[in-house]
Amino acid sequence: MSNHAAESETDPSARNGLQTVDRAVSVLEILARRGEAGVTEVASLLDVHKSTASRLLGALEARDLVEQAVERGKYRLGFGIVRLAGAVTGGLDITRQSQAVCERLAGDIGETVNIAVLRERYAVNLYQVRGPGAVGAHNWVGHMTPVHATSSGKILLAYLPDAERAEVLKATRLKKETSRTLDDRANLEQDLAQTRERGYAITLEELEEGLHAFSAPVRSGGGEVVAAISASGPAYRLTEERMHELAPVLLKGAAEISHRMGYLG
Q1: Residues 6 or more apart from 48 whose CB is under 8 A from it?
Q2: Cα 192 to Cα 148: distance, rounded to the nearest angstrom
Q3: Does position 137 have pLDDT exceeding 60, yes or no?
Q4: Model's pTM, two decimal places?
Q5: How far apart are CA 142 and CA 123, in angstroms?
């Protein structure tokens, strides 16, 4: 037996620490199996007091490993899991099917390329490839970004059924991230209509000053838009005119990923 193992058997604090880790992992496993669970349910399954279950969930929530569902009191796995997953994200079908295309597009367009999906009222980035000119670019993987201020979010909103889009927008505070953010519902709806008409979305310094982005839809085998692929870069280089010029390249990449997902349209 190693000294460390022997110490853990005799040191109460070490035993308590291991027990806490074991319980935290058990919470994640419970949520993975059940989808959602409340404090009382977690406490019962772990055979611990509700206060203990609440502390565990609170600690995991602080790290974005779990999040509260729309129904208050219920928890589910959070997208902080994606940040920890690393190579495991390759197991996600959309990520696995898009990796090669994203890498090629990052080279062809010369900017950072991301894959994002809709989670409640956020666009959540699952995979990112930095272009050759994107030295020091921000890593967006695992981040929840506002749907109304990002090109990926606009794509994901634009192709939702009207009732679902209205529900998402109702839950979304159209916060003004910059002076150019569309924080008026009517203006945003007009922008989304234009997005559907041309088949891709653009944002002009709407999330961050000096950052432009454009995005195209990725479809599942059934034709539903399940993700958005975007390219983003500095406004001085990725101008509005250049984004329109490069749109066919991004659309072709999105179509290729959609085909890999089983879409035959």
Answers
A1: 23
A2: 10
A3: no
A4: 0.67
A5: 10
